[in-house]
Amino acid sequence: MKNFIIAAFFLLGFQTLLAQDNVSPEEKKTLLAKSPFNSLYPTSILKSADTYFGSQMALFSEGAINEKNAHLIALGTSAATKCAYCIPYHISEAKRLGATEEEIKTAVLIAADVMRMSTLFYGNEFDLEAFKAMLK
């Protein structure tokens, strides 16, 4: 087991080194001007982070779930994780896409209920296998 852990750390570290971006000072300036969110990442992964962020944002408008519902899902997740930055963004986007106050409240309530049930199951050590058996 110890050898496995050492090998895993080595491979993860090696993979991280391979993923490093070579960013010139001019490229860095351009990427930082492109999006204020790029300032959140170390220079060593700045290009990759910018590409990833663009791809992730496309999930909202081009994914299998329509854009309004994607923002409602993200709002529920944001509320559950208490992301003070995400909540106003996803409310704004959901409203822009026609979400009603009832849809917004429902998305938040669903997230709250999932968190409540998770807390009850986890805190009471409810048997996971017994739970899965109940779903069949």
Write a structural description:
The longest helix has 23 residues, at 101-123. This protein starts with a helix and ends with a helix. The mean pLDDT is 90. It is mainly α and 136 residues long. It has helices spanning 2-18, 25-34, 46-62, 67-80, 86-96, 101-123, 128-134. The protein is flat and about 55 Å long.
Topology:
Elements: H1 2-18, H2 25-34, H3 46-62, H4 67-80, H5 86-96, H6 101-123, H7 128-134
Helix pairs in contact: 3-4, 4-5, 4-6
Summed up, what is this model?
The chain has 136 residues and is mainly alpha-helical. The chain has helices at 2-18, 25-34, 46-62, 67-80, 86-96, 101-123, 128-134.
Number of strands: 0
Helicity level: over 70%
Number of helical runs? 7
Give the low-pLDDT segments: none
Q: What structural category arises from helix and sheet content? A: mainly alpha
Main β sheet profile: none
| Head-to-tail CA distance between termini | 35 Å
Arithmetic mean pLDDT: 90
Q: What Rg is obtained from the alpha carbons, in whole angstroms? A: 20 Å
Give the percentage of residues in beta strands: under 5%
From the spread of the alpha carbons, the general shape counts as flat
Order of helices and strands: HHHHHHH
Pick out its properties.
single chain, 136 residues, mainly alpha, 7 helices
